[in-house]
Amino acid sequence: MRIPAHSVCTAIRDDIVAGIHERGGRLTEEVLARRYGVSRVPVREALRTLEAEGFVVTRRHAGACVAEPTEQEAADLLEMRLLLEPLGAARAAQRRTEAHLKVLRGLVRLGQERARLGNSDDLRALDGWFHETLAQACGSHALTSALTQLRHKIAWMYSVDGPASPPETWAEHGAIVDAVARGDGERARAVTALHTERATLAHRLRTPAGDRARRAQHAVNTAGLRN
């Protein structure tokens, strides 16, 4: 795989989120450079960025490794999202552009249509685009960046059950856009807070592959002892 040097950070982050680079696993510059078809320089820069974001840690005698967040750290992410998503929507109500509104309304129309058809794969992608656009509409680089990192980390640490009622979820998205379009920051904040609380209930903490393997091996060993 060859990718542009400036996209190395995104590619490594995406592979961490997808579990291709397992938690606790070493991230060797030479191996990563070969995998992504670049020199070691952009890899080294990417690892520094990912360490600042919390996806990578540097360990003595091991070098760069994928971070291993605790359950408490994972829970903190959901709590942070409960605070920041409504703030972002409130700011978007004051700072959004017509271009943002056009994209948000288009996504809501598509989402409502797909929800009626029951296409869950499309809905997941559309939901991600919706929240990404809403974050961009807040008019704050710092807040947009924080929300983006939260989405990446939550996707890394949690699996998400499909919404019990996709049409209801997209009706909530529509209500958020209506408030943003009217410039009603308090309404946007309140509707987004309710939407985020409901979405949080569908999150299930992922079990790292290494932990699953160790538990499976332990079960086998224990069964052997009992026999």
UniProtKB/TrEMBL annotation:
Annotated CDD domains: WHTH_GntR
Any one Gene Ontology molecular-function term assigned to this protein's record: DNA binding
A Pfam entry, by short name: FCD
Every HTH gntR-type domain range: 2-69
Domain of life: Bacteria
Keyword tags: DNA-binding, Transcription, Transcription regulation
Name by which UniProt lists this protein: GntR family transcriptional regulator
Organism placement in taxonomy: Bacteria, Bacillati, Actinomycetota, Actinomycetes, Kitasatosporales
